[in-house]
Amino acid sequence: MCATPTDSATASRNTGATAERILFLLKSHGPLKTADLGPLLKITLEATRQQIQKLLEAELIVGQVVPSAGAGRPSQKWALTPAAQARFPDTHAQLTLQLIDSIKLIYGNDGIDKVVSSIEQANTHDYVNACAQATSLEEKVMALVRIRDAAGYMASMQADGESWLLIESHCPICIAAQKCQGFCRSELQVFQAALGQDADVERIEHLITGDRRCVYRVTPHPS
């Protein structure tokens, strides 16, 4: 679920560069074992353990027991705490919530719908233009990744058979999206408009419903 800033996160902003990289890896990859982190960080296992201990003391990570697939002992993965999640900013969260409440109070739900529609139209124009020069579906998805990553969504893509996955490991408007899920519905429509008639897009993971990220599958139409 989305996190809000906590005192623990504010008090522990002085973690080192390697520790910050661990937080980024856990945010983008999900829970990882100590043995997984070492190679990604290109440091020794002992150095990784030292960084893990610092993050545990700062209450920025927590251990999760993973049952063994066979007869072996359970293993442990590290995951972000709400305090760590809060280090990845929700853009202008408090101001956005106040604006949504004010619009709803003055203009009602119709006013909120009009605001969402206006933002959707503006984003559709920008996203369609960003994909206009693409000559393949892969290039279109790459264009969406660039624009979403620049907007703070920690976006990436990966192949999924004949389809492509657009992965967003962070949502910079998460608090606003919880308050008004019209923003999430609007995103799907914007993506579809940018991709055109050659592909369908569906959301298969959704941060708002408890997943750790948002993932969209882009499936080409049969030629």
UniProtKB/TrEMBL annotation:
Domain of life of the organism encoding this protein: Bacteria
SUPFAM superfamilies linked: Winged helix' DNA-binding domain (SSF46785)
Protein name: Transcriptional regulator
Organism encoding this protein: Pseudomonas weihenstephanensis
